[in-house]
Amino acid sequence: MKLSSLYEEMLEGLHFHEVNDGGRLILLLMDGKSSIGYINIDLITNGYEMFEEFMSEDEYLKLFRGDSFYEIEHLEVDKKHVDGGFGTKLIKKAIETIKSKGGKAIYLNASPVKHESLDLDTLINFYSKFGFKVIPDTEDEYDNKEMILRLWI
Questions:
Q1: pLDDT (tens digit, 9 = 90+) per residue, 92-103?
Q2: pTM for the full model?
Q3: How far is the first Cα of the chain from the last one, in angstroms, to the nearest whole number?
Q4: Residues in contact with 9: Cβ distance below 8 Å, sequence separation at least 6, in sequence order
């Protein structure tokens, strides 16, 4: 973690708490003893089956550079803290944590399903700020967008 980020969090009274839950890593953003939000991270191995209807195995291996990657499965900020920059803090912490574990790629499904106030374009723009790119030709029946951040580049 950069010292400026640590200093900023100390001034705001924020801290992260990590919980390992059966292979899933949950990063909780805390304000004292209250949760502001969380992000779930899963290590995916043998993940080609998630993409086999969209791409060949060769395309998959080229995109993910191997057969394991991390997935940001869920990001949520408490309703009273929305628009406070806490989603940004959670994504940055997740990327930092995955890098420290030697992760080569991070995948997520940009989906506004549980976010009434967000549309798909807003979500894509949000994740794009951190370097995530839309994976072409991966639309599903809900018009979600599959996105990837490749960490080896």
A1: 999 999 999 999
A2: 0.84
A3: 20
A4: 15, 89
